[in-house]
## 1
Amino acid sequence: MGAKIEGKPIKTIICDDFEAMSQCSADLICESLKAKPDSLLCLPAGSSATRTFQILKERADSGEVDFSEAYFVSLDEWLDLKDESENCTAFMLQNFYNPLNIDKNKIRLFDIHAENLEEECKSVDKYIFDHGGIDLMLLGLGMNGHLGLNEPGESFDSYAKVVTLDTVTQQVGQKYFSKSTDLTRGITLGVRHIFDSKKVILQVGGMAKADIVKKVYESKPSFEIPGTVMQLLDNGVVVLDRDAASSLENVSCE
Ligand SMILES: N[C@@H]1[C@@H](O)[C@H](O)[C@@H](COP(=O)(O)O)O[C@@H]1O
């Protein structure tokens, strides 16, 4: 992408701490779901969203929100794992789909064992198009700026695809596994899905992400830092806690 493309100021909400950030994202998700109960939602595996998922479960249990009519599509998944018991799907089942009793028929997971993964990507794209697009994507930010598994250098002009994982993702991704795991390839929704989504929430917490958050805000939109796509979205919002926002200067908030 040429350096000439200018981004816009990112719509931003800065929360006091991780708990407030998680509550804020849960509020936005509930608001969206109430407006359209049969929304197609895309939620991320990873540590950023775990508390948000607990809050959504609490709210579903209290009847404040109802996920029974909603549909779900996977954001990303590791490929070629010898042991799949700790992959993104397992994480989502454990932390969201099972606790909230989501009907399995309403979840479109990536079939990582499909004979033809390119065809599988097209089939996931079709699922999304057939549902009229994704209504809401909740995203986390990788330490290298990735969104889903859209790694640095990947085009913004693609839908679901198979990707080679960046060395940072290979290393940081170890945190999801109880033993050392070879992470070489992944399958992910593409940045075009992020552009097309009716609402995008990027949720980032913690000091460890402060530097990459600064780059997302202060670099020109570029394939090298996929998170910079937030500067190009009309329907995007970044929800930060104070730690993740601590390196930012001059950010105007909601
Ligand atoms: N592929 C996942 C992303 O979908 C996730 O949102 C992001 C942040 O992860 P975490 O929330 O664990 O920091 O990186 C992971 O590698």
## 2
Amino acid sequence: MTPDAWADVTGVVTAGGRSSRFGSDKALVTWQGRTLLACACAPLEAAAGRLIIAPEGRYHMPGWRVTPDTRPGEGPLAALEAALHAAPDGWVAFTGVDLPCLTRAYWETLLAARVPGMLGVQALDGLRRPQPLAALYHTSLRAHVTALLDAGERRLRFAVPAGQVHHVTGLDPALLRNVNTPADLPGAR
Ligand SMILES: Nc1nc2c(ncn2[C@@H]2O[C@H](COP(=O)(O)OP(=O)(O)OP(=O)(O)O)[C@@H](O)[C@H]2O)c(=O)[nH]1
Ligand SMILES: [Mg+2]
């Protein structure tokens, strides 16, 4: 895939969670020689813009700008709102620190699946469940996401209106390994 595929894309790693199930800040846990934050950032390095949504001063990744939450502690949907407002018009490739096995090829599969007029692209896992925390969102969702949050919604899976999300099947389920507890990451330090 040409670098042009990434020209209107902002890579976003949200990292403002509490890691309460993990027991320590999972963004900074080392696994296979890198922090989970670095694992999440690496496959998005080709993006034209790169943002980490987290409190200022907590994380430093070369080439990545840290942007604070607009609604701190309100979860990934609120983090997406912050990302959509901080990104230039285009697409946001949105993920979290607890998906360390995504690859550049994963993201390029989603980028290639963008459909004119659709506002989101999400993979389906082996059980055909959409994966909203490893997904593409168009910045024209800004007002919709803000309205959801103002109405009390906090579930990321509702970020894109029904019928506006394109689903991608056939991705290797191992790419979507999700880290919530230390048992999810054998060998982590
Ligand atoms: N910026 C931001 N990111 C968040 C927030 N809540 C969760 N996240 C991130 O969203 C991703 C997935 O969240 P969870 O697995 O629930 O992580 P968590 O909230 O840190 O962990 P638990 O406390 O165990 O639920 C992780 O990358 C978190 O850092 C938030 O309020 N703000
Ligand atoms: Mg959480």
